[in-house]
Design a protein that fits this description.
Helix 1 runs antiparallel to helix 3 and helix 5 crosses helix 6. The chain is of the alpha+beta class. The chain has 3 domains: 79 residues, RRM (RNA recognition motif) domain (Alpha-Beta Plaits), CATH 3.30.70.330; 70 residues, Alpha-Beta Plaits (2-Layer Sandwich); 83 residues, no CATH class. The strands form 4 sheets. Strands 2, 3, 9, 10 and 11 form a 5-stranded antiparallel beta sheet that branches. The two termini are 35 Å apart. A hairpin with a 2-residue loop joins strand 12 and strand 13. It has 6 helices and 14 strands.
Length: 296
């Protein structure tokens, strides 16, 4: 992946979920893996889950014996594990093995469906000023016809999610980790840059680790950090629930928000899923702290 591109942290409200504002490739999973590999991807994490119900927690030997029958060289698998979501994760850096894995339809006789962690095999860039009357199918057809990129997804950002009001900004996701310096679109040459998400904060507990719709925590006051509604807050001072600083939890200059920006950049540059990125980012922070402590 080239890191010479200008990194951006675009402050746009949300992206579209409505069908007319979303284009998604219908490529089979093994074709997605091939497209990604042709454009620089070299690591494939493939998830399996039962088509119905749950996969049983199998011993590693049972899994190896079962996979040995299905794959030409099971030794090319780097790692297997069961996740907390009761899914089976199989990792490999070998393209042919990844394709073979993606074609598995059952494990231990149990019908399964599989998916691949898209963050590790895709790149994203932003296109501005795409007329609202331009269908995303037409846009992606033009991009594919004039460039060597393979498109996984294109979606318009929304300025108002509740009313589904689309904007002229389109986020394009391509297969592979090699992002070109520019693209050609309708006979014009456009410079592009790697897209990095902005921090997204839960409006209930103000954590950056989950959206408001998935929050299971108690409601926290934005002003004082206590467990009560903001309308009933009588605190004379502000205390951030995240960093304990003298400001609101939503303050744009909060150190924790800046840390989240660094995390999202780290996740993007290292092609990691959110779970892996969180873990490795924390490890890197500890290493940096220890190094600074030893130097001082």
């Amino acid at each position: 992946m080239s890191t010479a591109h200008t990194l951006q942290n675009i402050e746009i409200e949300d992206w579209a979920s409505h069908s007319k504002n979303l284009f998604r490739s219908k490529l089979a999973l093994h074709d997605q893996i091939i497209c990604a590999a042709q454009n620089g991807a070299h690591k494939f994490n493939i998830f399996f889950q039962a088509a119905s119900g749950n996969l049983p927690q199998l011993y590693p030997k049972q899994l190896k014996d079962n996979l040995t029958v299905k794959l030409r060289n099971v030794k090319l698998i780097d790692h297997i594990q069961f996740t907390r979501q009761n899914r089976l994760l199989i990792s490999t850096e070998h393209l042919e093995t990844a394709i073979e894995i993606s074609n598995i339809k059952a494990i231990m006789g149990i019908p399964t469906v599989c998916s691949v962690i898209s963050e590790q095999i895709t790149s994203r860039f932003l296109l501005r000023n795409v007329p609202l009357e331009t269908p995303l199918q037409e846009l992606t057809d033009e991009l594919k016809a004039e460039n060597t990129i393979k498109i996984h997804e294109a979606r318009r950002f929304l300025s108002d999610k509740s009313r589904n009001i689309a904007t002229e900004n389109v986020l394009v996701t391509t297969y592979g980790t090699n992002l070109p310096q520019h693209i050609k679109l309708w006979l014009t040459r456009q410079e592009i840059s790697l897209f990095i998400d902005k921090p997204r904060q839960c409006r209930k507990c103000f954590s950056f680790s989950h959206p408001t719709s998935k929050c299971k925590n108690e409601s926290i006051c934005e002003i004082c950090g206590e467990q009560h509604n903001i309308q009933s807050c009588t605190s004379p001072t502000m205390t951030c629930i995240l960093c304990k600083g003298p400001h609101k939890a939503t303050d744009l200059k909060c150190p924790k928000r800046e840390e989240e920006r660094k995390f999202l950049k780290f996740k993007c540059l290292n092609r990691l899923s959110f779970i892996d990125a969180r873990r490795k980012f924390q490890i890197d922070k500890k290493i940096l702290f220890i190094c600074c402590f030893n130097i001082s």
